[in-house]
Amino acid sequence: MSSHAPHDDGLNPPIPSYDEAMLSPGMLSNGQLPSPSTFDPFSPMGEAFYAPENESRGLLHHTHQRQGSTATNGSRRSANRSSRPRNSGYRPPTVETDDEDSTWSSSDDERTTRNGRDGDDDDLEVEAAHVRREMIELDMEDPLDSNNGRGRPSIFGKGFSLSLPKWASNWRLSIPRLRIQLPSGPESPDGTAPSFASRFGRLAGFSRVNTTDAENPESADSSANTQDTTRRRWFARPEWTKRINTAVAIVVFVRIFAVTMILGFVYLLFMSDLFTSLSRRLGSQVFDPESVRMHIQMSVNPARMRDMSKHFTSYAHMAGTEGDFALALDVKNLFTKYGLDDVTVDEYYVYLNYPRKDGRAVEILGADGKATWSAKLEEEEAGGEAAGHQTYAFHGLSKAGDVHGPLIYANYGSRDDFKKLKDSGIVTDGAIALVRYYGTQSDRALKVKAAELAGFAGCLIYSDPVDDGFIQGEVAPEGRYMPADGVQRGSVSLMSYVIGDVLTPGWESKKGLPRLAPEKSAGLVKIPSLPLAWRDAQVLLQQLKGAGQRVPKDWEGGVPDVPEWWTGNKTGSPIVRLKNEQDEETQQPVWNVYGRIEGVEQSAKKILIGNHRDSWTFGSTDPHSGTAIMLEVARIFGDLVERGWRPLRTIEFMSWDAEEYNLIGSTEYVENNLDSLRRDGLAYINLDTAVTGGQFHAAGSPVFSKLLNQVMKRVSDPNVNATLHDLWEQNHSTLEELGAGSDYVAFQDLAGTSSLDLHFDGPGYPAHSSYDNFDWMDRVGDPGFVYHGMLGEVVGLLLIELADRPVMPFDMTAYGDSIGQWTKDLMQWVQGQVDEANKAGHGDKAHVSFTKLQEASDIIAASVREFDRWDLKWESQVLASGGWESTSLGQQRTEYITRMADFETNLLDLEVGGGIPGRTQFKHVVYGPQLWSSYDGDLFPAVKDLVAAGDWGRANQTVAKIAKIFEHAALQLLE
Fold it and tell me: Which GO MF terms does the UniProt record name (predicted)?
């Protein structure tokens, strides 16, 4: 055997000789330390000394050496090996040399007598031959083979060489070799048992030349006779078995058995219930649920949210503008920084309008048609030079136009208000309406729509101090209410008719898809409008004195220096010009930004949390109180992921665009992902105008009732030293019904995803004005960002329970009870309408049968109670098994969660043409916007629309249809 030079491929370090490995670290063969001047740490011996694995091996062998001892054959061999020169190849111990007394090899004395040579040399040669033959037979590598210096390649070598570190690249993976003590075979003619080498050779088919037999034929014949006798003993043995040696067959069998056991263990571990239970058990130990909850609460940082609010309100950013795009990139970068998965920007092309600098005017015209007075329109500069130019006062999605006509005051601009004008003889055709915000008609768009239906040519909406001004309290920037120059911008899109892009109702606004012409959209009003400060409205109201009729007392507002409030009329009112020239973009890009945390068990199922990013002005309250909270929660959950935590279900963080115009970003997303949301959307949490004060409010699907109460008990208000739950009960608060004024609408009413809207309310804030800036929030809205922090805790706890509790904590019983109560409320409301119809002489057809709907609501109540019992059954089974959950039980649990979430989806009317009649975009049979109050929302809006219109026949059909949908939802729950 010759020594081999080290390879140059850099993967395999030089292997030390056996003698070198036997030495203590740093010792030469003569027992001396190497000289610093001559020792090469990169030589084969140097590497042996410095490699940690070689160092430990050397220490082990050195400890067990007995230099100079001749007590045993093994120790004598060690002494001989130490005195003889060796090559650099290290030979690991073999089966034959592990045990000195093994019957698998002959003794040293026998070898010395037989060969007449040194027993150790013969032992080494015979031993090497035996090992090589065995390796050839079993297709294993021979580390002593001198053909290539590395032995025959292992069948595992290629697959593992790239994955192992450099120091381990000389390892070879093989099945453990088992030593088996076999009974002796037939004796040889001289009375001795045949050696293992001879038997191994016959099995392998080797031709071994026996010099004794060749020189002595009699001995050969005797041997042949003995073999014949042996063969006759096995006269029934098949021919093919003559070539099989029993010892090797057993070795092969044992190895096959070992492989089978290993594969069986792997299957048991990774494919059976054991792995599922073990992985969950380990996860619960590493990430204790209570520790995670505490970590979330302790990680919420109000100071960080304050900084975030300051940044996001530092410049104006209406949807589709440069400022909006810049903040979209900021959100994207933050999501990425926080370690969220699959951070993406989703672009849509939608219809938006923008004001022109000189394109808007409100003027009083003289007899010659020239302006005698012009409204200022714009607010005083509130943002400061660092914030850039604040936005112009205008209405989103308003009608462009330049109209003029007599001014007529119409209170809050409700349909009843316009009806009173008509009944009093006031001619409104071609006039300009002046109405105030809030009151009996909360939706500004429906104020304009009502004016349009009453024949007005244009509409002006102002903020009155009696509703939102100094009469209520101190005004901004020092207080919460609108100052004299404050203007409430906003959209006049008809959200109760169409949500999302008004040119693509029912489908996403992507390139290449069809689009309506603006004049054909049901979501746009048909007369121009503008918002005003009461400072400008004051002049107009003063000019109405003596024209038309004195208004009723409840029509009088709080604008100062208006001694008498008059309606105005066609002949006595001043002529007012309303000019609204604007830029209209039919395919303006807007940008949603998404980041997700992938779930480990039900990755397709998702819990979504969203907040819109666009703002009419700086938007410290609306929307960026919600933005700061959502980003803080995203940071905390990203930190959990970095620590190795993952939820059972996927969490998605969504930054919506163009919400202010018509809930555009969220609706386009829902329409673009409608099927997957109906299948996999579990819950949606909405943050919009999240903090304006200190009173907690929640509106949403009843499934959140129990969970919300649990979470509120964990969060305390430091200002009053009480938990949110205590304050909730003191205020007699309840989970409110969802309205229709924010991004939850598309999820709840189109996709059937159970939704929840959260916020801390105050007595007021300067809504949609330039006074809603960081300075106001920092000093007035939420000093110290205390309530930002509290809502951050609430949201974080809700997310962790919804996404990571084994059984998602939906309160299905609460939903069943609510449906029963809502049905009774609907019956009472309809009965009131029937009574009015009877009084008016139209009672012959005024009747709606609720028998089937009552029965269906009772079925739902019973079904959800039966359904809820499975949760207790699951818990008892897991506890009974010591916390282990079988795979079959885990599958039942995930199916249970799916049916739980599907219940809300099954309340959608998905028939062709289904949904609220005339507004089929809204599919939920329970929730939906009121036709004439989209902000408030309503229950059973389809039935109420038909009853209000006097269409009793279709009302009965709709009630029967809802009953069938209820029964189907109850049936699906228990399948």
Answer: carboxypeptidase activity
